[in-house]
Design a protein that fits this description.
homotrimer; about 160 residues; alpha+beta; Nuclear Transport Factor 2, Chain: A; 3 helices; 7 strands; globular
Chain lengths: ~160, ~160, ~160
Amino acid sequence: MAGITLERILALHAAYIRCIDRDELEAWPEFFLDPCLYVVTSAENHRLGFPGGMIYADTRGMLIDRVASLRGANVYEKQTYRHILGLPSVLKNGGGEAETETPFMVARIMHDGQTDIFATGVYLDVVRAAGNDLKFAKRIVVCDSSRIHTLLALPL
Amino acid sequence: MAGITLERILALHAAYIRCIDRDELEAWPEFFLDPCLYVVTSAENHRLGFPGGMIYADTRGMLIDRVASLRGANVYEKQTYRHILGLPSVLKNGGGEAETETPFMVARIMHDGQTDIFATGVYLDVVRAAGNDLKFAKRIVVCDSSRIHTLLALPL
Amino acid sequence: MAGITLERILALHAAYIRCIDRDELEAWPEFFLDPCLYVVTSAENHRLGFPGGMIYADTRGMLIDRVASLRGANVYEKQTYRHILGLPSVLKNGGGEAETETPFMVARIMHDGQTDIFATGVYLDVVRAAGNDLKFAKRIVVCDSSRIHTLLALPL
């Protein structure tokens, strides 16, 4: 099977952050295969080889649960987020699967308009063609900062 | 008529922000068809369906007027701006016209070098092929922050 | 000779920032031809036509020396960086060589997790095909801020 085109990879990334930044979180788990691997961790933990992280999910059901718990917790006046992705590096590509690394920056916009950088890091992804769709088999979100956000209010 | 290639869409976006960040504002209205629709609004107003915004223009002449008034107002020592665009989502594409959504982040660099995030948001665009050119039929700039900048010193 | 595809240009940019942000600086000089031109300067100096800058190198050996001196200087607890590139404008393309302009933003993540914008600016590049590789014949890094960083701790 041939490699996946860059255009399809870019479209997947664009659709993923659009879903999150529009707060359409119920559609977010559908970007993943089932089973899958979704981990949010820090650069330090990742470098040290710690498998866990701030968030760990290996089925789509766990992602759905996570959205439900975020919806339950969001009782306060909420901030919004804006993801900006850099260009992906395609490290491997063939057999209907591609391994890519994509840097990201997320801005957080508070209710009074104050804007700061909420997170930066890199997505370590394995994407796989599933029929006409392209989905994440694996997404390791490596955050540059080790500061733990006690309530990580959105998926990354 | 066929769809517009992603490469042409990316090139249009890149040329647009290059024009603004190089302060070549006199060339900026030429990125639009005439008539057109150019609106800068907030996410909150956009969600509530308010048609207006901080800036509203529906002819190229109004865009030209806007540049003239910015040039007249800029008597103070000026800051510079840097746009960084994320990847566009192509929502519709066909008949020589494409509808896209593209996230943006704008940094503001003050004269003393201090740099902060000036604005984040998303461009809601309709682009149309006009001969060899690609131009904006419609650009709704939805800013994440509702804080009104009393003097919005540049086009977004 | 034909022009260089956008896909190859994007891949070069992605690989370059990946190398730096992964702190694999020893591989960084290999992104350049030898001789080459690598300059880091400010927008103000660039506009005034000053040829020099904060950093100037015109051989790969000078880039290698620079990495060695950065490695020697980095005795303190170090921060990390994250480059996010915008979309490149391809200004000329033909004869196996392309001239491009690409905006960038670099975030700096301090050891305590505090994140701010370290630098913004634009890469003015000439890239050239060398066999299967694509390398920088010239990279002028024009930083928006004129504030001189007395110890510029990483390549841009």
